[in-house]
Amino acid sequence: MSATRYAYLGPEGTFTEVALRTLPEAATRELVPMVSVPAALDAVRSGAAAAALVPIENSVEGGITATLDELASGEPLMIYREVLLSITFALLVRPGTKITDIKTVTAHPAAQPQVRNWMASNLPEVTWESAASNADGARLVQEGRYDAAFAGEFAAATYGLVPLVTEIHDAVNAQTRFVLVGRPARPAAPTGADKTSVVIWLGDDHPGALLELLQEFAVRGVNLMLIQSRPTGAGIGNYCFAVDAEGHISDRRVGEALMGLKRISPNVRFLGSYPRAGVLPADVPALRAGTSDTEFVAASDWLARCQDGRA
Fold first, then answer.
1. 265, exposed or middle or buried, with CB in 10 Å at 0-12, 13-18, 19+?
2. Which parts of the chain have pLDDT scores under 50?
3. Partners of 226 in the β-ladder
4. CB–CB of 282/208 below 8 Å?
5. Which of 108, 134, 205, 245 is most exposed by smallest CB count within 10 Å?
6. Nearest-angstrom CA–CA distance, 153 and 162
7. What sign does the dihedral 210-216-220-226 (CA atoms) show?
8. DSSP 30-85
9. Which residues make beta-bridge pairs with 224?
10. In sequence order, which ranges of the chain are alpha helices (DSSP H)?
11. 229 pairs with which residues across the strands?
């Protein structure tokens, strides 16, 4: 395995590259752009890269399905950390292009919901075509395949383009969450401000099936931060669920919730426990009564005394 290589969704000039360069260790790694999220994650599976940074969620449309599906299938991988990046787009064009010249525009599919209203007001007759990434859209504009691309303003110089319009976004303070993914290993020690990610499959489709899964978290006081259904590919009505929960697998409430899920679900894939981006332990709300490790241990000790006749 190449311990010095980090893959990312490329080509050069993507928001993913910008997010990756915010990590201190990126300065000492060879950063390798890949053509797609599956290609970036497969580089980790094959050992061609030690880790990969990929987008997993944005604040406008929710989960990035390509990433969620790749993490739910194939050889298991694990999330080690997350990065939050504020997102705003520029309309990049070849020099000399006026807005009235634009007939086609391209970008990554996840960008469209974030600029849809702006397009309706400013480019109502323009045809949208999807690209593998926003930076790849800029490359296609450079090659003359499209008239304009929505991408980060920083990508303009890389592809010989100019930003015709900047600060484009339908939602103020839009953010994208990226995750650094590697091969499975022991999770890092808890920080007090952590997140645990899993994928859960339904055993069978019956009334309350999803509720049964969610109750494993609820009865132990574990707050959920994301839950998104994804088709398994086994036919209509067959779903798995990507879940982000507050806390670390070493927290008793989280560990016992995962054990409960494993009892009732045919498959639970642990995707990692890792620090929450931009959150300090002091920012985490106090736990509900009865859900701390101390209280879980006390209840376990009480049960042991009952079994020994010492209650």
1. buried
2. none
3. 244
4. no
5. 205
6. 8
7. negative
8. EEEEESSHHHHHHHHHHTS-SEEEEEEEETTTEE-HHHHHHHHSSS--EEEEEEEE
9. 245
10. 15-20, 37-46, 65-72, 112-122, 134-142, 155-158, 209-218, 252-264, 293-308
11. 241
What is the pLDDT at residue 234? Answer: 75
Tell me, what amino acid is at 59?
A: S
pLDDT score at 127: 96
pTM over 0.85: yes
Q: Which residues contact 238 (CB under 8 A, 6 or more apart)?
A: 202, 205, 231, 232
Amino acid at 245: A
User: Using an 8 Å Cβ cutoff, are 300 and 292 in contact?
Assistant: no
Q: Of 296, 256, 255, 295, nearest to 273 (Cα)? A: 255
Q: What letter does residue 292 receive in the DSSP assignment?
A: S
Q: Which residue has the tokens 């604040």?
A: 59
Exposed, middle or buried, 208 (CB in 10 Å: 0-12/13-18/19+)? exposed
Q: What is the pLDDT of residue 1?
A: 52
For tokens 């981006």, name the residue: 277
Cβ neighbours, 10 Å, residue 187: 18
Beta strand 89-93 with 148-151 is antiparallel
Give the integer Cα–Cα distance in Å for 240 and 229: 6
Degrees to nearest 5, angle at CA 96 with 110 and 127: 35
Q: What is the pLDDT of residue 233?
A: 75
Beta bridge partners of 107: 130
Sign of CA dihedral 86, 38, 230, 256: negative
Side chain identity at 21, as an amino acid letter? R
| Structure tokens given for 256 | 């016992």
Q: Which residue from 55, 74, 76 is spatially nearest to 65, judged by alpha carbons?
A: 55
Assess contact for 147 and 137: CB atoms under 8 A: no
